[in-house]
Amino acid sequence: MGFKFRYKIAFKQAWAVLTISLILGLLSTSVQIFLDLRQETRSSVEGINRLIELHKEAAQRAVYNLNYSKADEITSAIIAHPEILQATLVDDFGDALAHHVRDSSAPDTFFSTVGNFFFPFNSHYESTLTIGDSHSGVAKLIIELDSTYIAHNFALRAVTSLLFGVLHTVVLASVFLFFFYRYLSRPILNIAKWVNRLRTDEDIALPYTGCDEIGDLVTSFASLWDERRQVTDRLNKTIQKLSKSEHFSRSLMENAGDAMFLCTPSTKIIDLNNQAVDTLKSGKDQVLGTTLSRYSQNYTEDALIDLFNSMDEKQVCTFEDLLINERNRVFPIEARGIRIRLDDKDYILISARDITARKESEKQIFELAFFDTLTGMANRRLFLDRLSSALELHKVHQVHGAVLYMDLDRFKTINDSLGHGIGDRLLCTVAKRLNEIVPVEATSARFGGDEFVILLPEAGDSRVSCAESAVHISKKILEAIAAPFEVDGHTLYCTMSIGIAVFPEQGLCATDVLRYADIALYRVKAMGKNGFQFYDPEMQSSAQERLLIEKGLYQALDKKEFQLWFQPQVQADGAIVGAEVLLRWMHPEKGVISPASFIQIAEESGQIVEMGQWVLTESFEQLAQWKAQGLPASFKRLAINISPLQFMQVDFVGRFLTMLTDYKIPGELIELEITENMLLNNFEIASNKMRILKQRGISFAIDDFGTGYSSLRYLRYLPLDILKIDRSFVTNLRPSSEEAAIVEVIIATADRLGLTVIAEGVETEEERDTLLELGCLCFQGFFYARPMPATPFYERLQQDMDIMA
Fold first, then answer.
1. Start and end of every EAL domain (predicted)?
2. Cα distance between residue 215 and residue 191, in whole Å
3. DSSP readout, 210-239?
4. Beta-strand (E) ranges in 315-390?
5. Angle of helix 186-198 versus helix 9-65 axis, rounded to 10
6. Residues 51-69: b if buried by 16+ CB within 10 A, e if exposed
């Protein structure tokens, strides 16, 4: 036959068609048999249920009446069906009222065995019968199906369907094979014989001349074969000439570590090395003939052609691109291209290197340099860069922008009490809420800690419209932050303080705008937090004054510029019962500075701890001196204000008790004045320290009572002795005023709890008389005496001792 049997297309084709047809036929028949099984099972179950329902009522009456003949009639009727093998009617005592069994109507054949094995089903059915109000048990109608009969019938139908399906498939496949062989396989076999004979005989008639695709193929091949004979000699010479240089170039290309592509100027790939095949994850034959733009994400075919046309033979052209391999993985590459000339034709040699690792490193470096690692927001560096760009842009365009400098209130309390882990997650949640609010063109940044900044580059065409936009966004931020935060099972409440600076202003740089917003933020903090303020020139001078004070505080202790002054606390008869220690700063240039001007700054800068320790030491020394000189019997205590930051120091109680021992001062002579904020933020720690000190006789007073949020909550739980009514309730106090009603409630509450009340800021006789009418018996204020240094105060004490003597 000229060909080995196994290479004939007709036989391969016949085998494939017959095999596929049989598989598809078996699958189709199996699916049909499965569907028939489901339908047969469903129909059988429905039939059994109908049969039971048909006889159920009669069976219930037969059991209820113990009618054996009726029960026998029912079971006989049931087993009349060929599918049912036996039927039993059991009364509510568990006794069989009637039972019928018949022989199986089908022999135990091969089909029944196959059916039972492949198509198992439930052959046992029980139906519960309701028998009046019987309490003895449950009556049942029990039916056993003839599984052999059912399985035999179904298996017989299934086998018959399977045989007819296979026969149908074989016939259909044979018809297809005939037509395939007649019109496709036989012409191809003749063409194959003709091609083999061309190698030895040039003058052979065409094996096929039909006007179809096969005929066109034979004609084209015959034409190409003639052309081949003409150029064979010329090609052999060329190959011999280039064999040495080609072998050298091929070795270099194949062993290169970069992917290399040899392309025509039209971007068609005509050769590539092994590394390129591995990079594209595709066979070499599949890549050859395709265009390089197919694997490029950044360059279209026209753009890549323009790039290739710009290359020359002397200068390497370097460019970056995103390469797409056959597995749809996209990765960056650095490509180098140069024009080369082979056989008087121009080609482009491209060398491509995967730079994924380098890009990821560059991205990490960029993120570390310009983004906050915790929240993913921009950091200070990136924010200032964008703010500087916005300022340059606003010099040209008549638009205005704004900077919102924000600080999270109470964050330090949450961070210290619940831990930095909770604090970090809270900051991430705050950042998420801010990013959901700010416009797309805005830049949100975190400067560290709980400070956030937002840049609104184009907030309005005028300063007014810009301010309105900033106010609108600030209100949305305040509302969003005020909503509770759920962090690791903790419900946290925070507020936000926002300082706003509008730009551009003549001659301002980015740091100036940011500083103005920061100054406005301090204004918000000073006004009670949880709000927003715009920067103005007054705030600038206030900030400068604050910086001077903060700088001066660092030197005041070393230069001994602080002094203790004392203001008497007087009872109704005029006798001095105590004194409050007041700190005065004797500034060498500004004179006497009151605590109101520098205490808050000292607290915010942390200097209050060192200053507070100095106040305690000086107060103990002064009290020890007065005690040695002699104190009037009416003098009960020296009141010392304690900063929350100082009181919460870990070693405060130990140092305080040591000082009591060193200066030999009884604790009963010392009163510590604390603020409501300390109780609000650190209730448990503060209360424990107070109880320890209370054991040494120290008394405690709440300063400025009534101006905070939660004072009444703590009165019954803390070892307090004194309530000091704030001067805001005392100033211009009249018997019928609203303030009088508040003071009366405070005094009544203190009396009920056994606490002493001292009214601060008493300046007039009318205020004193009104307080007396309301029940207050102890006073402090200018009406009795102004604060004074230690020497004049002790002289005043001596006058009281002389009067009492």
1. 546-801
2. 10
3. -SSHHHHHHHHHHHHHHHHHHHHHHHHHHH
4. 317-324, 330-342, 345-354
5. 150
6. bbeebbebbbebbbeebee
Q: Tell me the backbone φ, ψ of residue 803, rounded to 5 degrees.
A: -65, -45
Domain 256-359 belongs to what topology?
Answer: Beta-Lactamase (3.30.450)
Beta strands 576-587 and 591-593, pairing class: antiparallel
> How far is the C-alpha of 455 from the C-alpha of 439, rounded, in Å?
10
For 199, half-sphere exposure in the C-beta direction (CA atoms, 13 angstrom radius) is 4
pLDDT digits (tens, 9 = 90+) for 661-707: 999 999 999 999 987 766 666 778 888 899 999 999 999 998 877 66
**ω into residue 187 within 30 of 0, thus cis?**
no
Other beta carbons less than 10 A from residue 549's beta carbon: 20
- Long-range contact pairs involving 423-432 (C-beta distance under 8 Å, separation at least 24): 424/374, 425/487, 425/488, 426/485, 426/487, 426/492, 426/494, 427/374, 427/375, 428/374, 428/375, 429/485, 429/487, 430/481, 430/485, 430/494, 431/375, 431/376, 431/377
The phi and psi torsions of 87 (rounded to 5 degrees) equal -140, 135
| Residue with the two structure tokens 């019938």 | 153
Residue 58 and residue 74 in contact, taking contact as beta carbons nearer than 8 Å: yes
Task: Identify each DSSP E strand in 588-682 by its residue range.
Answer: 591-593, 637-641, 670-674
Least confident of 116-125, 373-382, 705-714: 705-714
- Write the single-letter amino acid at 109: T
Angstrom CA distances, 241 to 247, 285, 343, stand at: 11, 26, 12
User: Residue 796 in 3-state DSSP?
Assistant: helix
3-state secondary structure 394-438: HHHCCCEEEEEEEEEECHHHHHHHHCHHHHHHHHHHHHHHHHHHC
Q: What are the boundaries of each domain within the chain?
A: 5-170, 208-252, 256-359, 371-535, 561-804
Locate the DSSP E strands across 504-561: 531-534
Contact 142, 87 (CB under 8 A): yes
- Please classify residue 228 by burial: count the beta carbons closer than 10 Å to its beta carbon, then call 0-12 exposed, 13-18 middle and 19+ buried: exposed
The Cα 354–Cα 330 span in angstroms is 11
**Which CATH number is associated with domain 561-804?**
3.20.20.450
Radius of gyration of the chain measured on its C-alpha atoms? 51
What's the CA gap between 406 and 477, in Å, rounded? 10
Indicate the length of the chain as a whole number. Answer: 805
Element counts in the chain: helices (H) and strands (E): 27, 26
Q: Which residues pair with 591 in a beta bridge?
A: 587
Give 3-state DSSP helix, strand, coil % of the chain, rounded to 5: 55, 20, 25
To 10 degrees, the CA torsion angle through 10, 14, 17, 21?
Answer: 170
Residue 498, helix vs strand vs coil: strand
Residue 46: pLDDT over 50: yes
pLDDT for 714: 67
Q: What DSSP letter does each residue of 43-91 carry, written as one string?
A: HHHHHHHHHHHHHHHHHHHHHHHT-HHHHHHHHHHHHTSTTEEEEEEE-
The confidence score (pLDDT) of residue 193 equals 74
Tokens of 9: 């297309």
Beta strand 756-760 with 778-780 is parallel
753 with 716: CB under 8 angstroms? yes
Say if residues 63 and 185 touch (Cβ distance below 8 Å).
no
Instruction: Please give the residue that has the higher pLDDT: either 586 or 50.
Output: 586
CATH number of 371-535: 3.30.70.270
